[in-house]
Amino acid sequence: MKLSDIKKVVILGAGTMGQQIGFLCAMHGYNVALYDLSREILDEAMKRMEKLGSWFISMGRIKPDQLVDIMVRIESTPDPEEAAKDADFINESLPEDPELKARVFAVFNEFCPERTVFTTNTSTLVPSMFAEKTGRPQKFAALHFHDVRTSNVVDVMPHPGTAPVIVDLVRDFAKSIGQIVILLHRENNGYVFNAMLSSLFSSALTLASNGVASVEDIDRSWMGVMHMPIGPFGIMDQVGLSTVWTITDFWAGKTGDPQLKANADFLKQYLDKDRLGFKNMRGFYSYPNPAYSEQGFLSGERKTEE
Ligand SMILES: NC(=O)c1ccc[n+]([C@@H]2O[C@H](COP(=O)([O-])OP(=O)(O)OC[C@H]3O[C@@H](n4cnc5c(N)ncnc54)[C@H](O)[C@@H]3O)[C@@H](O)[C@H]2O)c1
Fold first, then answer.
1. What is the pLDDT of residue 306?
2. For residue 145, which atom of ligand 1 is closest to its CA?
3. Where is the signal peptide (predicted)?
4. pLDDT of the residue at 230
């Protein structure tokens, strides 16, 4: 199959990511079928996609009259057979559970044409964990998105059994929906940006939990040298401190590394004070006007947050 043969894209799971990816595909001219558990979930997802469209208009990324055409290209159904009919390409955004993903892929393998390419948007699993269970391992790879409102970078990660022509096709498809493609040559626990970001988080947390420097000075250092508007602790607030803690604590337990445990405990102090990050407006910083975005932060004239 060539890129020009791809007409219909099926999105499995119409949650946060499925809505974004589905909209992006329709915005670039593909017919999209959204699949989820029930009509109610799908109706809600369609409403949210329309809102996402309004946001794209407000950012000048699409024109108001384009939104109607985009929405017309998106259908939704809780019936897998209907969703799979004439499918050329699938991207899956189901919950992060390999058994569940495998089960749904197996159903779609039954109903999809032989040509259909399967991709997963999993964040933390690797495709080989459920490649065989998809029933078409050679036509399966990870195609991983970030938040499409703020990023146009995707990772393409094949597993050892992915056919090279499929890797090329997935890459071409991602480019056709306006994405910058980062190709991983082999499976890795963590995509390229995520792997670098988690090292940055880990270094910043180690410095702070060992009392080497304050949260603000660590961010100041990164921001000052890299000319960035935000530092590692500010980014952790955006990601959500419970997410960062869960991952840090998981790896602390798995590796037995005392430094990772200290980093997890450092984060836990904030969670215990109900400082969850941007999501509840209090984390390492207070929102909507975090200290790091105020004048005088870099020069240290602004007082440190308690
Ligand atoms: N949220 C992010 O920032 C992000 C970023 C990149 C990748 N991801 C990955 O994307 C995937 C989805 O994440 P999300 O945040 O969109 O999750 P979400 O919970 O918002 O959406 C999951 C959707 O799957 C549906 N679902 C559950 N079981 C189903 C089934 N058996 N059949 C059909 N639909 C079913 C749910 O109803 C829900 O609508 C995960 O693998 C996650 O790791 C998430």
1. 53
2. 6
3. none
4. 96
What is the model's pLDDT at position 256? 97
Which ligand 1 atom lies nearest to the CA of residue 124?
Answer: 43
Q: How far away, in angstroms, is 212 Cα from ligand 1 center?
A: 39
Smallest CA separation from ligand 1 atom 8, residue: 123
Instruction: Give the ligand 1 atom nearest the CA of 78.
Output: 33
- Distance in angstroms (rounded) separating the CA atoms of residues 178 and 27: 10
* Distance of CA 303 from the midpoint of ligand 1 (Å): 40
CATH, range 193-293: 1.10.1040.10
Q: Kindly list the protein residues whose Cβ atom lies closer than 6 A to any atom of ligand 1.
A: 13-18, 36-37, 41, 93-96, 100, 104, 121-123, 144-145, 147
pLDDT at 103: 97
Domain spans in the chain, listed from the N-terminal domain onward: 3-183, 193-293
- Could you tell me if 1 and 75 are in contact, meaning their C-beta atoms sit under 8 angstroms apart? no
pLDDT at position 305, please?
Answer: 58
- The pLDDT value given to residue 243: 84
Record the pTM. Answer: 0.88
pLDDT given at position 303 = 56
Q: 189 C-alpha vs ligand 1 centroid, how far in Å?
A: 19
> Distance (Å, rounded) from C-alpha 225 to C-alpha 152?
25
- Cα within 13 Å of Cα(301), Cβ side: 5
Residues of the chain with pLDDT below 70 are: 302-306
> Taking a C-beta distance cutoff of 8 angstroms, is the pair 127, 159 a contact?
yes
- The CA distance from 196 to 175, in Å, is 23
Domains 3-183 and 193-293 share a fold: no
